[in-house]
Design goal:
The protein is mainly α. About 65% of the residues lie in helices and about 10% in strands. It is built from 6 helices and 3 strands. The protein has a 3-stranded antiparallel beta sheet with strand order 1-2-3, with helices on both faces.
Amino acid sequence: MKSVEVKTKLAALEAARLKRQEEREQAEEEPKMLHRVSALEALASAEEKHGAKVVRMVETSSGEVVVKIPHEAIMNRFSDLDDPKTSDFDTLVMGSLVFPGAEKFTEMVEQKPGVRMAVAKGVLDLSGFRLKELSGKS
């Protein structure tokens, strides 16, 4: 292939890639906005029901998650753990979850596993539990 042909082909392929990317982003935009609307509605409802100081919206790479301070028994069990496992973080988060529902949250975690820890950190912060305490460091 001649240099001109390579440049032409490269430009066409790059333009097609950018078009596909733009189409994907447009297709994903509305569901993201609808999720955020639902999250903000859930946050407002939870603040009204529980008080603004005990609920929080955690922004994750998969969308917003609304949590409330977990029941004291759940926090006590969690804080008594020397080496929390993934299932312990799941119990903590699921016991605090306001929005989305458990099934949707599980889908979010399956797509991006780091979402679990981002939300768990939000729950722990909201509860006044410092992550340094978790690792035993001061």
